[in-house]
Amino acid sequence: MSIFQILIALHILAGTVCLLTGLLAIIMRKKRGLHTIYGEIYHGSYVVIFLTSIITAIWHWEESAYLFFIALFSYGLALYGYLARKRRWTEWVGKHINGMLGSYIGVITAVLVVNQAKIPVLNQWPSLLLWLLPTIIGSPLIAMVQRQSEKRKMSAKRV
Description:
It comes from Brevibacillus laterosporus (Bacillus laterosporus). It is a single chain. Helix content is 84%, strand content 0%. By secondary structure, it is mainly alpha-helical. It has one domain (3-151).
């Protein structure tokens, strides 16, 4: 197995962990505990995805240059959401939600685009649709979660 193949295998493993722990962090109660544990694993696996993406994109620039930029953008969102919580930035909850869910959209987009040819039904769809659909669906969901978070914050202030 070549170094490149090892990097790809590591990338796929980290991507799988990222998809699963991201989903678990999303559905868990937003308190210290499982949400935090899954979130830490999500972020750690995203770091691996980021590094393997950057290395493999540079290694095969002609075929994979786009991965370099996707990695920068999507991990940038994950890091933004992660640091907002860790550093308790002003209005950190909204920033955390935007960053983490935005980065999750990035992971879903990458999985769909890279695996489109192997997924029945999706292999019939235009490629551009798979690039855009996660954002089209995910952005309103992020806005909805933001509104719910704001409502909880306002009702907590009243008590």
